[in-house]
Amino acid sequence: MVLQRKALLFLLLGSFLLLSACSNSNATGKSKETDKKETTDVFQTIKTDDLKANLGKEDWVIVDTRSNDAFNGWALDGVKRGGHIKGAVDFSADWLKVKVDKKDKKLKEALKSKGISTDKKVVLYDANGKDAQTVAEYLKNNGFKNIYKFDVKEWAANQDLALESYPNYEMLASSTWVNDLINNKNNGNPYKIFEVSWGDEAKDYKKGHIPGAVHINTDEVEEGPVWNRLKDKKLEKFALKNGITTDTTVVLYGSDSMPAFRVAVILKYMGVSDVRVLNGGFASWKNASYQVEKKVNSKKSVASFGAVVPANPDYIIDLPEAKTILADKNTGTLVDIRSWDEFIGKISGYDYIEAKGRPAGAVWGHAGSDSSHLEDFRSIDNTMRNGSEILSMWEKDGINPDKKLAFYCGTGWRAAEVLFYADVLGLKNITLYDGGWNEWSMDPSNPVEKGKSNK
Amino acid sequence: MIKNRKMFLPYLLTSILQFSGIILAMVLEDLSSKKMGVARYLVFKKQEFASSFFTPFLIQIYTILFVIGAIICLLLLITKGRSKGMVFSLLIGVAANIIGIIFIQFQMELQAYHFFVIGMMIVIVVQYGWLLFNRFFQKN
């Protein structure tokens, strides 16, 4: 009996020891995994002099991992100067947080197009100590080995080291700047914030908007069947109704930025001197976790616009001027901002445009997958694409930015966005052909081409 | 009204067909305030119809045809309206023609105006078909 008890006690003790051993074994395994993870999270840093020495080398690639706003020129996160290191490509940590279809494929395409490959030494820089780390982890998970981190604050603090900004980067407002504008009330100067989208109901606006923002329906500035901008007198009434004068700082945004760019271009044509569009749209505001309000703000009118509309008439042209540009290809180019299928005349792109093709002599300047997308000019987070890449794309298309460039699309929305980007990049001789393919195709006497162009 | 059960399905299908145009017009009108593409499509079609099947002259002709249709249906209702089915069909005929006149003359501001008029035309034509069917194939 005693023997049986001893055997049972031994068995229980043995089982307990075995379980304890297994448990310890698991704990040790976890601990090792944690250690391993912590080890992988540590990346080498590179000194300013070393970075400077390796700039421009073929086996090195310098990557700006900050927001597109910082890349464009805004001095954010405490840097002394805004802009990016000359020669750097952009791969923002923000892109990794975006929720879009085929995200991984799009990110890998971006890496490839920017020359960020596993055979190169990759320097990732940021200013907040987080963005480079986020991108570094992503790259490491995708087979990158030679990864270095760099704090761009050091570079920006040294006036002798070059930083590149787009000449008119301020036109694309960062959410930080808009928030500051609201908080400091534009230092007492007049300002207005507008959410722009089509329709009176403005679902996007009612869901939540930037504090103080007023809704603009795009039908307030254009009318069918051509969908050109309204006549100048009507545009002036629109400005007065919305409280806009030539001196008002106007910030435009939307869930989709394209309508905001459309109105922005019309306001610049009218003569408003400080027109800005929130880069990346309302998503960038929400991602920054700034305040959102649901209250419907009413329009507050003004008595006088401050100039005769249009004060900047060359910013938008019509059919006769478009024909003049086509007539002299040595001085100007009519740039088609539509999808390839629209350009070659395979589709019209619109339910309300029947004709297919393009104005004879127009040059394809890229756009996107269909009539409501502009992937070729936007990054995955819907901010403006790297300006060097846009100019390089146009160079391949045979578009010379030194000539007069008149952008057109179907009814002037996509082309307005591209015109605005060209303005941000500092191109001087640029304009919007407002009527676009819709207007051109309405008159059968206007020459039309289909198929691939001969450039 | 439908005494023969075999007739129920054809009657139902024809009725759906009869009002399909009006339903489509109502859907388009509703979407025109919600979808920009639909709104612009309707503006485009409005312009296209106004220069083809709905010129001012043709609109006058259609109005006259509706008025004549309403008068004929009303006269038939007074003189030949004996069976319940015939009375019902003629009443719908009169009403459809009057509604057609209202649409074509007074609802031009509707975004889907031409689609409503076409819808009413379909209603009236199918109703005439019912009247003929009642007249020649229904015994009572």
UniProtKB/TrEMBL annotation, chain A:
<dbReference type="InterPro" id="IPR045078">
    <property type="entry name" value="TST/MPST-like"/>
</dbReference>
<protein>
    <submittedName>
        <fullName>Thiosulfate sulfurtransferase YnjE</fullName>
        <ecNumber>2.8.1.1</ecNumber>
    </submittedName>
</protein>
<feature type="domain" description="Rhodanese">
    <location>
        <begin position="187"/>
        <end position="294"/>
    </location>
</feature>
<dbReference type="InterPro" id="IPR001763">
    <property type="entry name" value="Rhodanese-like_dom"/>
</dbReference>
<dbReference type="GO" id="GO:0004792">
    <property type="term" value="F:thiosulfate-cyanide sulfurtransferase activity"/>
</dbReference>
<dbReference type="InterPro" id="IPR001307">
    <property type="entry name" value="Thiosulphate_STrfase_CS"/>
</dbReference>
<dbReference type="InterPro" id="IPR036873">
    <property type="entry name" value="Rhodanese-like_dom_sf"/>
</dbReference>
<feature type="domain" description="Rhodanese">
    <location>
        <begin position="56"/>
        <end position="164"/>
    </location>
</feature>
<feature type="signal peptide">
    <location>
        <begin position="1"/>
        <end position="27"/>
    </location>
</feature>
<feature type="domain" description="Rhodanese">
    <location>
        <begin position="328"/>
        <end position="449"/>
    </location>
</feature>
<keyword id="KW-0808">Transferase</keyword>
<keyword id="KW-0732">Signal</keyword>
<dbReference type="Pfam" id="PF00581">
    <property type="entry name" value="Rhodanese"/>
</dbReference>
<keyword id="KW-0677">Repeat</keyword>
UniProtKB/TrEMBL annotation, chain B:
<keyword id="KW-1133">Transmembrane helix</keyword>
<feature type="transmembrane region" description="Helical">
    <location>
        <begin position="7"/>
        <end position="28"/>
    </location>
</feature>
<feature type="transmembrane region" description="Helical">
    <location>
        <begin position="112"/>
        <end position="133"/>
    </location>
</feature>
<feature type="transmembrane region" description="Helical">
    <location>
        <begin position="57"/>
        <end position="78"/>
    </location>
</feature>
<keyword id="KW-0812">Transmembrane</keyword>
<protein>
    <submittedName>
        <fullName>Uncharacterized protein</fullName>
    </submittedName>
</protein>
<keyword id="KW-0472">Membrane</keyword>
<feature type="transmembrane region" description="Helical">
    <location>
        <begin position="85"/>
        <end position="106"/>
    </location>
</feature>
